[in-house]
Design brief:
mainly alpha, 2 domains, two-stranded antiparallel ribbon, 10 helices, about 75% helix
């Protein structure tokens, strides 16, 4: 009798072990299937929401946008200021003719460089005062376009919009009007135009000529340095970009 009980226990033991193994295998399959589901869900999420890479605008794209903007705004300024300009006045025509004659005399060697500079400085000063109202309107429209319009359009002018590029902060924070203003003053000739207008109104002929010449050289130097920086740096940022902590990107 004892022997038969032992045999029964022996026969039951393998079955119990087999059941445990099957249960363990089922659990492992469930865990594996859960892992597969999680991996599939992660893969779908990555596919549906891929990480957007910031693509920087090239120098050619930025230059093209700037040229388009200047063409557009110059046309608008010409149309708005033409009725108010004095370009058809007798005095303006006389000054223009004097300037042309002075240039021709210098080219033909009839006057030396010192005489040429003195005469042209006087004539240019008088022409600037003659067209002062048009210059004032021009500065206002350029400021309105490159600062206010660009700020309201979240870092885009018409030229930038056509070429699908935009100004943005490096740290992805919101652009402020000060960011746009400082950029435009530096790179869009607005500061130079304001200074030239102020010199026309408040300074003498000598100060006007050398002041405008000096600021013009500074303006072109800034543009040249910024162009070299955009072409050579990996982040394609110019002097005005670094000062305002901004960059120009391609729109996706």
């Amino acid at each position: 009798m004892a022997k038969s009980e032992k045999e029964e226990k022996k026969s039951k033991t393998p079955k119990t072990d087999t059941n445990k193994e099957k249960s363990k295998a089922k659990k492992e399959k469930v865990v594996e299937s859960k892992k597969e589901v999680i991996e599939d869900a992660t893969l779908i999420t990555k596919t549906e929401n891929p990480k957007k890479e910031t693509k920087l605008a090239s120098f050619i794209e930025r230059l093209g946008a700037l040229i388009l903007d200047f063409m557009i705004i110059s046309l608008v300024v010409s149309l708005l200021t033409y009725p108010l300009s004095n370009t058809n006045s007798e005095n303006y025509k006389k000054l223009s003719k004097e300037l042309q004659t002075t240039i021709e005399q210098y080219r033909n060697g009839k006057i030396d460089s010192k005489t040429y500079l003195n005469r042209s400085a006087d004539i240019n000063y008088d022409i600037s005062r003659e067209t002062g109202l048009s210059s004032l309107i021009s500065v206002f429209i350029f400021s309105l376009y490159f600062i206010i319009f660009q700020y309201k359009n979240k870092g885009q002018t018409i030229g930038k919009k056509l070429l699908k590029i935009r100004v943005k902060k490096v740290d992805n924070s919101e652009l402020t009007i000060n960011d746009i203003m400082f950029r435009s003053l530096i790179i869009d000739f607005i500061l130079y135009d304001i200074i030239s207008l102020c010199l026309t109104i408040f300074s003498s002929k000598d100060i006007y000529f050398y002041g405008v010449l000096g600021f013009e050289l500074i303006q072109y130097a800034v543009i040249f340095i910024s162009a070299i920086m955009i072409l050579s740096r990996k982040d394609k940022r110019g002097l005005h970009d670094i000062i305002t902590h901004t960059q120009v990107i391609k729109e996706s």
